[in-house]
Amino acid sequence: MRVAYVNAAAGIAGDMLLGALVDAGARPAAVFGALAELGLDGYALTFERTQRGGIAAMWANVVVDADGPGHEHEHGDHGHPHRPAKDVRRLIERGELAPVVRDRALAVVAALAEAEGQVHGLAADDVELHEVGAVDAIVDIVGVAAALHDLGIEAVFVSPLAMGHGSVGAAHGTLPNPPPAVARLLARRSVPVTGVDTGMELSTPTGVALAVTLAESFGPLPAMTVDAVGYGAGTADPRARPNVVQVLVGDAVVADPAAPQPGREAVLLEANVDDVTGEVLAHAISALLAAGAHDAWAVPIVMKKGRPAHTVAALADPAAVEAVASVLVAETGSLGLRASTVARWPQARQELVVTVDGHAVRIKRSAGRVKVEHDDAVAVAAATGRPLRDILRDAESAGALS
Q1: Cα separation, 384 vs 182, whole angstroms
Q2: Is the pTM of this model over 0.70?
Q3: DSSP string spanning 253-277?
Q4: pLDDT tens sequence across 78-133
Q5: Which domains does the chain have, with CATH numbers?
Q6: Which residues, at least 6 apart from 151, have a Cβ–Cβ distance to it below 8 Å?
Q7: Cβ distance 364 to 350 under 8 Å?
């Protein structure tokens, strides 16, 4: 399986990822061909060799003629026109794109539209997206999808995303850094981030939407053989660090299924409680999962003198034991807890995003099964008025085909 690993240690933006994929071997002609299917005009896209911090990189430079001759805006300028998300979706749907290119682009647009809608309190279809609605961001999203297809990439893995601090300028004025839409996107999948001591907007909404939607998982480099590497340049060239996205392309290394595989070490934390309500137990389980537990649950038991009680348990990575244990004690009020080391065998699965009626729905896909994220399906059912069971069925079908 062909895979790509995106190293976003300096942040991520749509143009940076597009440049990195072309630098890694994606044909510019494949990108231009996909974009031609959209029927867009009033923009120019060039791929230019440059350097950032002494590293040779590819700059995907998009220039948009927003107001006619003499009024061009470079990539990242907020002066160009906005479009409702539903118009962007129709634009992509009516283009004669390869199915995988179309589906990836639509999923990114849907995720970004929902995030912007949550920020502004608007329906996802109606919000005017200041990033995805602009021509340059449409070029980034469809261009990245086309470049991945041209490289034959079946799975994308992404490092933790770099974030700046302070505030940044935007169409709505001065916003926190990371911007609200970025924060919403990060929360969709509990994306790991790294803080960088800079006031720059290191990761843009479009770049983060691409990462959150396309990534199978976030973390260290997966087992793979690397045969191509690309660097995509950001517009800025700060002195402190190379402003580039690195992409490694190669084949996944698959373990021999006949070879014995060791279980992964985990810690089982448990506390017996007999003085908490069901509501408190439910909240404690949610808090344990939010603190980083792999899983959390409660089991009814009978304690001394016949008292009904519960064992509240959490399964955690050794590195997360301290944080999870603190939550277990705080939320249950237990006077103590116990721990034991166990082995766990998590089965291989893919985390994907599919679209149902224009809304993004997260799924987990393993051998012979598609599991739909319940909260996402409920949100789509509420937005569309359709029965939940129909949304679940459509998401499962889309997940089986993607």
Answers
A1: 25
A2: no
A3: -PPPTTS--PPEEEEEEEEEESS--
A4: 444 567 888 888 999 998 999 999 999 999 999 998 998 888 888 877 777 654 45
A5: 2-252 (no CATH), 264-344 (3.30.70.1380), 350-401 (no CATH)
A6: 2, 4, 21, 24, 25, 26, 228, 249
A7: yes
